[in-house]
Amino acid sequence: MKIFNFLKIATALTGLVLLFNACSEDPVAPPVPVPVQKPITTIADLKAKWVDADITIAEEVYIKGIVTLTPAKKNITDFVTYIQDETGGIAITLENAYYNRLEEGMEITVGGTGIMLKKFNGLFQFGNLKLETGYLSGTGKEVKPRLVTIADILDKKYTGELVELKNVQFEKSGTFNGTSGNNTLTDCTSKATVYTRSQATFAADALPAGNGSFIGVVSIFNTPQLLVRNPAELNMTGDRCGGVTPPDNNSTNVCGDTNAAQVSLVEMFNDAVVNQSYTKAGWRNVIVKGDRNWTGKDFSGNNYVQATAHNAPAGTYETWLITPPLDVTNATNKVVKFKTAQAYWKATTSFEVFVLKCESGSTTQTKLNPILPTDKSTNYEFVSSGDIDLSAYSGIVHIGFRYVAEGGASNSTTWCIDDFEFNNTATTVNITSSAVTSVAGKGSYVYNITTQVVNAKGNTVISATGLPVWATFTDNGDGTASITGTAPEVTADENSDIVITAVNNGVEAKQSFTLTVKAPVAGENKVVNGGFEDWTGTLPVGWDNVNYNNGVQKETTIVHSGSNALKHTHIYDSKDPNKPAASKIQQEIDIVGGKTYTISYWYLDNDPNAKSRIWSFWLDETGKTLTDGEANLRPTSYSSNSADWVLVETTLTAPANAKKFRFEVRTYAGDGRDGFVYYDDFAVIEK
Q: Which of 139, 145, 256, 568 is 20 to 30 Å from 447 by CA-CA measure?
């Protein structure tokens, strides 16, 4: 719920009529003038003034109503209050939240001239009310909630009003703050959103588990939503729709878990949604303290779950991830294992793993001792727990992962979980790499295929069908493979439908994709990977890495654009007279003789021990270098040190007999020492 503007209201009582007046925290009653009788507009008539745009009401206008919702429990912003008359309800916004002393049941008159009537994300607001315009005409007034249905709420009826819904229940268990503040209320036919601010005094309280009546205020934030005034007003203890009560997902108590016990369980978290609370049937994502829980993450196509208190408000955070029930008695291999990783180690964070078991009506917690990452481990490097023997247990158990950390910026360790297995005897095969689906004509193509196999039996065999004739497939025999080749020059895009198959122990996984060889486009950059975004290992894709790869390094911090640049180092060696005077990077590009091209690149020379210059040629059909354009393509001058990126650019017409352009840049050591230069954004574009 997000609202704008402020209203400054304070009260001084005179009989039944009080003038809201500016006052201190401990007011001293000033002389109070008898308020002038003001014409009252109903809330319904006020809303009718809004047509298609926000307005400032020029004439004097006042509304009178009873306060139905205040920021007392912090479920709405401090400068907002909801009031209601016999025709409807509305949110009023106050000029200064500090003076918002309004209480539910007060009958007030507010208004004035030049008041704003706005719609904020669909919600009517009567705002920027002034201190001297408000009058209190009574307290302890009662507004009877209007009896409505979820269908009424979804139809945007009764916005701003106090309402009651009967025979409703929360769809899932959890806390009022839910997922990003949202919970779903249902009558088993329709559904409405209940929003609770994380700052609300009851945000971390458990939702009612049963069916019954719900009382709250109707609001809108783009779509209709309900706001709880006070959890005590929710009478939801009856039998749920269908008579089914869900497991209490907000508790570490495993007694009474009605989920089916698993004789075998494999969870790779492939369905974890990035940056969303992890939810899956049988699993419990429990918040014990604070508002953080286990969320989905991915890295290079691998999904996992993680917990962190980074950038959370100060305080202690505790969350558990608990597996579905595990049937140890009937498991043939009574072993559990998983992988964990840590990042940004802080000694104040703890991560522990427990066996949870219901005994005599209460849950026991037995701490396990798996292999876990330490403060010396690499950030986000997953470590196997090793096989954890559960043969000492019988019946049903759960595995619980407990995370406790302190909030604040960079004040907590991030912990990650992946690849959970219990009594896993089945072979599963997954192709984990993302296909490379396009390549420019004349460009180098590389797709490195990786697989993940659980309970492998022998080697994983990988094959491919639908390959273009220029592509070569290689099965490395270790669960990886590759497709490589140089694409031909094409005048129109050419597509190949490729299917990768990985097989182990009779279980197969397939990956299908279309590989497109891209035809050149007028005005398109003819340099392959000119921005050095694509690399194979330590070498940039598309460049002559056979003859010219000395001193090449991917640079991810100092870049001109994109994510990468190239750092080129020339190592000086006075004892080796045969060592070249310069290190080179180059790429040969198909061009058309007689056409005009703009040739450009950027460099950053901020190392006094290095210098750079372009040293490029036009080539004829035999590969012979042509002397044309020498002054621009092979200058006698070198780069100078600068803290800024520098553009080298020239526009030339290719000789009539030219077939290729050798785009070459050289890096030289300066003053007899090793040195480096950064390069980025090479381009050859036909004019």
A: 568
